[in-house]
Amino acid sequence: MHVIFIAPGYPAEMPHFVRGLASQGATVLGVSDVPVDQLPELAKRHLADYLHVPSLQDEDDVVRRVAAWSADRAIARVICMWEPGVVLAAKLRVALQVPGQSVEAAMRFRDKDLMKQHIVAAGIRAARHARAATAQEVRDAVAQVGFPAIIKPIAGAGSMDTFRVADAAELEAALAQLTHVPEVQVEEFITGEEFTFDTICIDGRIVYYNIGYYRPNPLLARSHEWISPQTLCLRDPDAPELAGGRALGEAVLKAMEFGTGFTHMEWFLTASGEAVFGEIAARPPGAHTVDLMNFVSDIDLFTGYAEAELFGTFSLQVERKYNTANIFKRAEGQGRITRIEGLAGLMQRHGAHVVHLDLLPIGAPRRDWKLTLLSDGYVVVRHPDWNTTKQIADDFGTDLRLYAS
Ligand SMILES: Nc1ncnc2c1ncn2[C@@H]1O[C@H](COP(=O)(O)OP(=O)(O)O)[C@@H](O)[C@H]1O
Ligand SMILES: [Mg+2]
Q1: Cβ-proximal residues to 151 (8 Å cutoff; 6+ apart), any chain
Q2: CB 115 within 8 A of CB 279
Q3: pLDDT tens, residue by residue, 16-46
Q4: Is the pTM of this model over 0.85?
Q5: Pocket-testing residue among 219, 269, 283, ligand 1, by greatest number of atoms within 8 A of Cβ
């Protein structure tokens, strides 16, 4: 089976999906806008061929180039798990007559307002919302949804350019910072804890699911540099207090008419126990969360997904043994990493529960914590007990310190 894979080198988990597909027997043809020698080794090793296009943003140009390049090969799937490329992948499916998500369906996953219209029409609880393209439209939309409100790009990612506004002054301050964003989504602010519902589906049937938890919520994590944000995956996604989220997730997948592939939904659990829809993407979660899901059960979802995508079957045995947590670290100070403190003591206390450690080395320049949740490194821990998992994660949050100057 020939599979076209958009953006095989980025984000970080993509080379593993290329490996998964190749290991299931697919001939994987990569397409992206970096020279082949800049692809990660793992991606290069498992790609059968590669097309370097000038820009993935120029969708019509990419469609023309890929059609010409792949003309003598029968393409079975077009896959893109990089958020900005899901509509491009759908356009390629049309051009190459390949089954899979349509352009219309992909648009619903990309455009936060279309998405919520669809969800609300299906009777699912989501924030009151409106789209706005001018400052006045934003003010009108806020008047409609009420304070506090959220303003964010209509097709955003990673909490970029996202503002919570509690009054007219904060609204005007946000507007001044949003002049470069052509269109925004304005929403009622939902107060609650933020969870995920992540699935692999085959023809709309859920064959694998995960519930994740953000500590603290992504907007807070992205607003304060001193925080070491945590992403956790729960050993017990079937817990009764999460039942509302699971039911919500199932209803959302139906309403979105999702077929086959990975999905990543975010939802709020309010103090009264109500589950409220946040957003959904037609791709896996990022920031190494697939690794976290793998570590819960000691499985390889990269190949498990590939089996579902290629053959419509899922044969992984999913026994959930651990809660897992990813702790993202941000160095103190600017420039290059000069010092890492606390690691030896933490490894002495918790070493048996650490499954992965990837900190920038001394001398490396700091990453931009606003652009990448990975920040200056991360630690993955796991434990069968939920509270112990959070305690270990907090210890890495507070006692592991990176310094830069
Ligand atoms: N209506 C809302 N109510 C409360 N918080 C919100 C709302 N919309 C967004 N947020 C906050 O902003 C974050 C980013 O928004 P989201 O819609 O997930 O966009 P993206 O992740 O694509 O940037 C969310 O995780 C949440 O913390
Ligand atoms: Mg989000």
Answers
A1: 138, 142, 162, 163, 165, 171, 174, 178, 184, 185, 186, 187
A2: yes
A3: 999 999 999 999 999 999 999 999 999 999 9
A4: yes
A5: 219
